[in-house]
Amino acid sequence: MSVAKVPDEELLVFDHEIAADPKRVFTAYLDPSQLHRWYGPAGWRAQTDDLVVESVVGGIQRVRMVNDFDPGATCVLQSRFLAIEPYHELEYAEQLPNHLGEPSDILVYSRFRFHPETVITPEGVGEGTRITVEIGPMPPNVHEEVRTSWRSTFARLDALLTEHDDPEQEDASPEQTDDGPGQASDPR
């Protein structure tokens, strides 16, 4: 299955604009050194100790988050990449966490499309990206809560990419290939 097969009433769709080009935004999704700094809604932080990003179709993304107010409360988000079109689209199937915060057998599909656009920036108007988010299936009564969680997550992404506007930070970008962002080479 994919997000394309989710019934309309169970599909949450919304856009978010960010003042960074699609390449930088897309890379932030797949680069572990960036992902842990922005991924997760307000009140939660992604951990680096067991973060996994296998950025190939069929690969796993596993993010363990810890609650800011109760460090004993954790949640593991585990996904499998269904589509990766560098700088344009990501789609994955995510195992929703159960009551213990571990991956369950309930799947939700997410697709993120990255569109180059003119957006409002801190300096006025400039180059940016419109991210179209599609998530489902999920009951309509939770759509607003999920949208709010993603808005707080995107606020962190906005801050991270604004911070990277500093030329000294650009050296920290991930290794790049013609196929898109990759992970650092194996030192063995």
UniProtKB/TrEMBL annotation:
Biased composition (Acidic residues): 165-178
Domain Activator of Hsp90 ATPase homologue 1/2-like C-terminal: 20-161
Protein name: Activator of Hsp90 ATPase homologue 1/2-like C-terminal domain-containing protein
InterPro entries: ASHA1/2-like_C, START-like_dom_sf
Ranges for region Disordered: 159-188
Name of one Pfam family that matches: AHSA1
Family the UniProt entry places it in: Belongs to the AHA1 family.
